[in-house]
Amino acid sequence: MGGLISTDPKVKVNSKIGPTFDPLYGFPDGREERVMKASLIEMQATNMPKRLRDFCAHLMIDYYKCRKDVWPLAYKCHHQKHAHDYCEHQDYILRMKEYEREKRLLVRQKRKEEKTKRMEERQKAH
């Protein structure tokens, strides 16, 4: 059960080493490069935990500033908190899409290798 799209259990994606295929493969018009909008200095100035220093850090900085400005009425910053949570969700979706893309390309590569192996075996048999 579950949401497995690729059914080949022999194909494993090593997410710790990053993508093994060209990130622009399959994108004829190219892709928009993701850039950090918040600098390391800004993140350190707000004492942001390292686990939050990602592509959505600029929104967390806005949330921290709002909380500081309106304290003790931190509930007034729910818009900033929601914006950060939405960004984190979109980031998660993008990472899952990248994972699935990598997995499908690995399956495709394996299928191509098996096909060439079969073709070579047929040529040797004749």
Overall residue-averaged pLDDT value: 87
Strand content: under 5%
N-to-C span:
44 Å
Q: How many β strands by DSSP?
A: 0
The proportion of residues forming helix, as a percent range, comes to: 40-55%
Largest beta sheet, briefly?
Answer: none
H and E string: HHH
Number of helices: 3
Approximate shape: rod-shaped
Low-confidence blocks of residues:
none
Structural class: mainly alpha
Rg over CA atoms, rounded to whole Å, is: 22 Å
Report on this model:
The protein has 126 residues and is an all-alpha fold. It has three helices and no strands. It has helices at 40-45, 57-70, 78-125. Helix 2 (57-70) packs antiparallel against helix 3. The protein is rod-shaped and about 80 Å long. The two termini are 44 Å apart. The model has no long low-confidence stretch (mean pLDDT 87).
Structural features:
126 residues; mainly alpha; 3 helices; rod-shaped
In summary, what is this structure?
The protein is an all-alpha fold and 126 residues long. The chain has helices at 40-45, 57-70, 78-125.
